[in-house]
Design brief:
single chain, 356 residues, alpha+beta, Thrombin, subunit H, Pdz3 Domain, six-stranded antiparallel beta barrel, 38% strand, globular
């Protein structure tokens, strides 16, 4: 495989970013999603107010009915999170008062103000944060809170519908809808990787709010947008599986540890394999290996194609991320790698991902 081919693959699959815009108050701009498909068939839906059904109904499209249903279900679980340097959004993930948000939303604060959908404002304790993936966990003194259901970000499909809810510019629980534009993004100008790309308009204050699928399950935590001349629809969210792993570690151990491999990669799909003459139709191809990382020390290099890890099939980047989440720093992962000269197994001793 030529250097030109791998460069083309990296451009096609990972994407070229423009630059990240940060709100000067400490809030990062983030973007929700826009609908992929519009139906013309109208379906009746009744307005609901204070738990009662209004006899007057309105005609909406099927897509609109989906957004309305999801917004009604998820909005009560969305909160505002604020501290002296800025504010953003969050999502309740446990009825005992556990809130998931961005690390940059809580900043260095040990306590933050959390505004609930029922109008209460509570003092929240920051239980843990990982700035390297921009996730923070907060607990508020409340019980039996409404909880957002969690989806599976390892199985997202490009083009599927998504809905974002947050507090842009202080406008509480604003709803926007759109699509998953791409997965496994590693945009330049932002020190995060494996992100979900979305295409909806975003504003300061959306950070930390949920990105939700059409079934009302949280698939991501909105975190950033790339902005620049001619840029539009370049928003990013942290995959919920990664964020939820941080939540579980904080609640069970009180600290965060993550296994670290140190590679950038792109998914191999049949059309990409055919176009570039790849020897497999699925798997991941390495686009970068970080210097002095566990991957580099083990001898992995760009253009390596990974098809298995510890005898488990690696069909996409989601499979590799899931495998790494199941392992601890210091563990050895055996990667089945395809190279121009044949197939080999590369053992890699995983490192500790940096946190603070």
């Amino acid at each position: 495989m030529t250097t030109q081919r791998i460069a083309a693959i990296a451009t096609l699959s990972v994407g070229i970013a423009i630059g990240i815009a940060l709100d000067r108050s400490g809030r990062r701009i983030v973007r929700p999603l826009v609908a992929t498909e519009t139906t013309t068939a109208a379906v009746p839906i009744q307005r609901v107010s204070n738990g009662s059904v209004d006899p007057a109904s309105v005609a909406v499209t099927q897509d609109e009915a989906t957004v309305i249903r999801v917004a009604r279900a998820i909005t009560p679980t969305v909160v505002s999170v604020s501290q002296d340097e800025g504010s953003g959004s969050g999502i309740i993930v446990d009825k005992s008062g556990v809130v998931l948000t961005n690390a940059h939303v809580v900043g260095s604060s040990r306590t933050v103000e959390v505004g609930l959908a029922d109008g209460r404002t509570l003092s929240g304790q920051v239980l843990g944060r990982d700035p390297t993936i921009d996730v923070a966990v907060v607990r508020v003194p409340a019980q039996n809170l409404p909880v957002a259901p969690i989806g599976d970000s390892d199985r997202l499909e490009v083009g599927q519908s998504a809905i974002a809810i947050g507090n842009p510019l202080g406008l509480e629980r604003t709803v926007t809808a759109g699509v998953v534009s791409a997965v496994n993004r590693n945009p330049r100008g932002i020190s995060l990787d494996g992100l979900i790309q979305t295409d909806a308009a975003i504003s300061p204050g959306n950070s930390g709010g949920p990105l939700v699928d059409s079934h009302g399950r949280v698939i991501g935590i909105n975190t950033a947008v790339l902005a620049g001349q001619g840029a539009s629809g370049l928003g990013f969210a942290i995959p919920i599986n990664l964020a939820n792993d941080v939540v579980q570690q904080v609640l069970t151990t009180g600290h965060i540890t993550r296994a670290y491999l140190g590679v950038g990669f792109a998914d191999i799909e049949p059309e990409l394999a055919r176009q570039f003459g790849l020897p497999v139709k699925e798997g991941i191809i390495l686009t970068a290996v970080e210097p002095r990382s566990p991957a580099a020390r083990a001898g992995l290099r760009p253009q390596d194609i990974i098809v298995k890890g510890n005898a488990t099939s690696i069909q996409s980047g989601g499979d590799l991320r899931k495998l790494l989440r199941s392992l601890k720093p210091g563990a050895t992962v055996r990667l089945d790698v395809i190279r121009p000269n044949g197939r080999t197994t590369v053992p890699v001793e995983l490192g500790q991902a940096p946190t603070s």
